[in-house]
Structure formats: C-alpha cells, structure tokens
C-alpha cells in the first residue's frame, strides 16, 4: 500500500502492484511447475519470474512506461500469459481483446485506448489494423518470443493500488464498448478473497481451459493459481476429450456452462475421472438447473456457481462449505456489499430489482468516460449493474436477467429467466432463450427460442400447451421458435441482442 508522508504526499511501493503477490509465492516455490502444456516445455515459477522480468525490460526498451496502455489481441499461449504478467509487473495497463474482433471493431479500440504498443498474433485483425503505433507480432512459444534475446531485467515497478492494471472492454450490446478500468487494488483484493472463499490449498492443481482475454480466465482462474503458486495444466482451448484426459491430475476446474454441457455429452465423464477434483466452478453465464443436477448425478460433484462482471470482478459465490443451490449464485463475497433496488426503493426478500454493488473489487470507472461512470453509480457509491436479481431471506442472490432484457407486455413486467426456467423444465427441451419483440397490441410479445434435446421431436404447439398450466397467460410465449443452437459469445453467453435482431419482425403482421 502507498505510504502517506507528513506532507500528505503519497509514495508508491512495489507491494501496491498485484504482481508482488504472485512474485512472493513464486520466490517461495521457484521449482514448482507453473504452466504445464501438453506436448510442450515446462515453465516453472522461477522461470516465470525470469521471463516476466526480461519481457518487462523489453517493454520498457520499446518505450512503454508506467501507465501506458498495451493493446493485445493474441491467441492463448504461454507467451501470452508472460506478456500479461510483464505488463502489470512494469506498471503498464494491459488491454486484452477478444480474438474474434475484426479490423473495423479494432479501429475503435485502438482509437479509444490510445495504446503505446499493439501486440497481435499473426493472422488476427490487430496485426493489420490502421495505426501509427508500434506493433509487435507474438507467436505462442516462449523460445520465439520477441523478448527472448533481451539481456536486461526489470524488477516489479512500484505503483499505488489505485493505479490502472488493466482495461477490459465491455461487450457493447447497448452501444459502443466501454473500457472498464481495473486497478491493482481491485485485482489484489478480489484474488485474496477468492483464495479464502474457495479454500485454495497447498497441493492444488488447476486445469485451465478458458480464454485469457476475459475476467474469468485471466483474473479468476489464472490469478488464483498464481497467488498460491499452483501448477496449471494449460489448455489453449476447451476440448472435452483433452480435458477429460487431464482431469484426473487436477484438483480445480473452472468453466462456463457450455463446458459442462459438453463434458456431459462425453460417455467417459464419470465418478472415477473426477475423483481427484475438489472444486468445479461455473460462471460467466447462467447454469441450467438440469446441468447442475445431471453433473452431480454423473460425477458426485456439486458445481459451485458464482457471479461476477467486468466492472466488479467476482461479486458473489455459493459457499465452499454449505449448500450450493441450483439457480443461485450465492451470497456476496467477504467485504462486498450488494443490494436490490426496485422502483427506486430497497426490494423486499425475493422481489426482483436492479442489483447494485459496492466494495474494493469495484472498478475505478470507464476509461475516459466520466459521464457514463457517474451515470452508473449511485450517490452513495454503489455501481448499478444492470442485472435484475433477487435476494432471499438467507442472503442468496439469484440473477433473473438484464434490465435491458426486461419484457413489458400489455403493461406487465416479465422477467425472461422465469419463463426460461419453465420452458427448460419441459421434456424435450435442451435449452432456451426468451426475448421480447415489438408487438402492435401488447407493446412487446414474448418469444421463446428453443433448442431441442437430442432425439426429441418437440413442436412449438406442444410447448405452448404445456406452459398453459405453468405460467400466467401474459407471461406465456406468443411465439415459439425451434433452432439448432443459440448464438453465443466466446464466454458462452447467449447473445439475446442477436436474437432480437433476427426475429425483430416476428409480429409485424399483428
């Protein structure tokens, strides 16, 4: 933490840098494996310290100073992990971008973040986007990394906990993406809280198959392992067969709901394969109750679901010891406050409203956008998440949906999650997404987009008939559409904006 002098000046210290937490663990466990890549060379924690010191010095040689942005669009690899750690070690701000972004989208991110350096994997858009900023190509293997021949080393740079460590751009489903500024203090406090909440152990081994341009893979999975110098079985992408091959050697696995549904489709998933795992975590999108139940039946493990977002990192978690309730994301983590507000007033137990968040995990604001930052915060410092939630008498949070997804039909508020739960419970339904589409008479009409379960011949009329005794008439879908799959982003979240665009004229004739 910074020290305040008698004159009121604030002096930064190296231990204000989140990397100092990882450095302390690595020094004490230098010979322990850090990244274990199938078929690749082993990188130890001592090797990580040397690589990041060399890469940080290389960044400085390129002219990247403390506080400068480094915009990165790279495939997942050991070199990509080292680059991220080198950036925060050097006091630079890491700006990771989804590898699916195209050149036109990149133009905006480059202009908005004003990076001192652009790093791109060959073949990705950042390699060719128009910019006069220095640009470096990064391949996956460390031996070919651009800093491999550097001779200088850079120690951990002193920063204040309030200094920017990373800028992560939101998905931009309601307009231009916004850059959420995450500080060293945000990252440090959140990983320490998670380590305690999830009872991280000395002998833990993490199986990492998530992307690393997102909070889940970067600041949750990777950071938890780094804080405890845990070996990481490092998979560059999620492949069910490869995960099942390595799962017996792991003790912790983190995934999005899609990972779990795909694992359940594998006959090899059973109790024996999962015997050594003590913790399965799911996040980034809602986990269906059916997936929760089937996974427990097949493996003997109860998935721990948690809730977080780009602007607040991890916010709530089902307990490690205690009930893990399907459909709930648990109570708030230690030191974090949450509340639900409905129509401008505190909600009663189980009453839906907008979830608001406050704590040391909360971002410092949107990059160069003070108006939006102010708009999304209350006068007493809570962040207005935009998620619709309920909190029960025991303090457990359930996410009902997004405020922008709220459907108002005939003057009645309809929460899509409630309708989805009823639809998903029907025989023959694999999953569903419920959206509101403009309707001449009702303002909005409810549309249920459904993926059939394998082998099912479910028909729309059967869905409507079954829901007649499950939902009030105003909540029932006025249209049911059967599709092969739902559109998702890289983290497995269903893209309802895309569905609304696809079916925007569904009720055009009345």
SS content category: alpha/beta
Could you give the count of β-strands?
27
CATH superfamily of the largest domain: ANL, N-terminal domain
The first-to-last residue Cα distance is 62 Å
Q: What gross morphology would you assign?
A: globular
Oligomer: single chain
From the alpha carbons, calculate the radius of gyration and give it in angstroms.
23 Å
Average residue-wise pLDDT: 92
Spatial order of the strands forming the largest sheet: 4-3-12-11-13-14-15-16
**CATH topology (level 3) name of the largest domain:** Rossmann fold
CATH architecture of the largest domain: 3-Layer(aba) Sandwich
Please describe what this structure looks like.
The chain starts with a strand and ends in an 8-residue tail after the last helix. Mean pLDDT is 92; it is low at 1-10. It has an 8-stranded mixed beta sheet. It has a 5-stranded antiparallel beta sheet with strand order 18-17-19-21-22. A hairpin with a 2-residue loop joins strand 23 (407-409) and strand 24. It folds into 3 domains: 44-183, 3-Layer(aba) Sandwich (Rossmann fold), CATH 3.40.50.980; 238-403, ANL, N-terminal domain (Rossmann fold), CATH 3.40.50; 406-502, 2-Layer Sandwich (GMP Synthetase, Chain A, domain 3). It is built from 13 helices and 27 strands. The chain is globular and about 70 Å long. It is an alpha/beta fold and 510 residues long.
């Amino acid at each position: 933490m910074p020290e305040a002098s008698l004159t009121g000046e604030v002096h930064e210290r190296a231990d204000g840098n989140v990397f100092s937490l990882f450095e302390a663990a690595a020094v004490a466990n230098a010979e322990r494996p850090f990244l274990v890549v199938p078929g690749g060379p082993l990188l130890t924690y001592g090797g990580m310290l040397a690589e990041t010191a060399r890469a940080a010095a290389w960044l400085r040689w390129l002219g990247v100073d403390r506080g400068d942005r480094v915009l990165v669009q790279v495939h997942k690899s050991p070199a990509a992990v080292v680059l991220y750690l080198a950036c925060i070690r050097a006091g630079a701000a890491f700006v990771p971008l989804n590898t699916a972004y195209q050149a036109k989208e990149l133009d905006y991110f480059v202009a908005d973040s004003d990076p001192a350096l652009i790093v791109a994997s060959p073949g990705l858009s950042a390699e060719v986007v128009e910019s006069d900023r220095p640009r470096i190509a990064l391949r996956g293997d460390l031996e070919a990394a651009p800093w491999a021949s550097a001779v200088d080393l850079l120690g951990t740079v002193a920063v204040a906990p309030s200094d920017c460590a990373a800028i992560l751009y939101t998905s931009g489903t309601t307009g231009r993406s916004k850059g959420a500024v995450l500080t060293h203090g945000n990252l440090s406090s959140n990983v320490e809280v998670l380590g305690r909440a999830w009872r991280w152990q000395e002998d833990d081994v993490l199986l990492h198959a998530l992307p690393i341009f997102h909070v889940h893979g970067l600041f949750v999975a990777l950071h938890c392992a780094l804080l405890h110098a845990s070996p990481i079985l490092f998979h560059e992408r999620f492949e069910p067969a490869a995960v099942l091959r390595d799962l017996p050697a792991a003790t912790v696995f983190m995934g999005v709901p899609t990972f779990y549904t795909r694992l359940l489709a594998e006959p090899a998933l059973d109790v024996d394969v999962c015997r050594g795992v003590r913790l399965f975590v799911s996040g980034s999108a809602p986990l269906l109750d059916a997936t929760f139940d089937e996974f427990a039946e097949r493996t003997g493990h109860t998935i721990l679901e948690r809730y977080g977002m780009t602007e607040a990192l991890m916010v709530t978690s089902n307990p490690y010891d205690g009930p893990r309730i399907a459909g709930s994301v648990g109570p708030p983590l230690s030191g974090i406050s949450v509340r639900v507000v409905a129509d401008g007033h505190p909600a009663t137990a189980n009453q839906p409203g907008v979830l608001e968040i406050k704590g040391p995990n909360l971002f410092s604001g949107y990059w160069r956008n003070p108006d939006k930052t102010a708009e999304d915060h209350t006068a007493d410092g809570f962040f207005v998440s935009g998620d619709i939630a309920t909190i029960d008498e025991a303090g457990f949070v359930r996410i009902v949906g997004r405020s922008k997804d709220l459907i108002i039909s005939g003057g009645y508020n309809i929460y899509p999650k409630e309708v989805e739960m009823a639809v998903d419970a029907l025989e023959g339904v694999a999953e569903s997404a419920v959206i509101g589409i403009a309707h001449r008479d009702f303002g909005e009409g409810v549309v249920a987009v459904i993926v059939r379960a394998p082998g099912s011949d479910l028909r729309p009329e059967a869905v409507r008939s079954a829901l007649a005794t499950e939902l009030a008439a105003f909540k029932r879908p006025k249209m049911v559409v059967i599709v092969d799959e739902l559109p998702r982003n890289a983290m497995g979240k269903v893209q309802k904006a895309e569905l609304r665009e696809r079916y925007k004229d569904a009720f055009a004739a009345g």
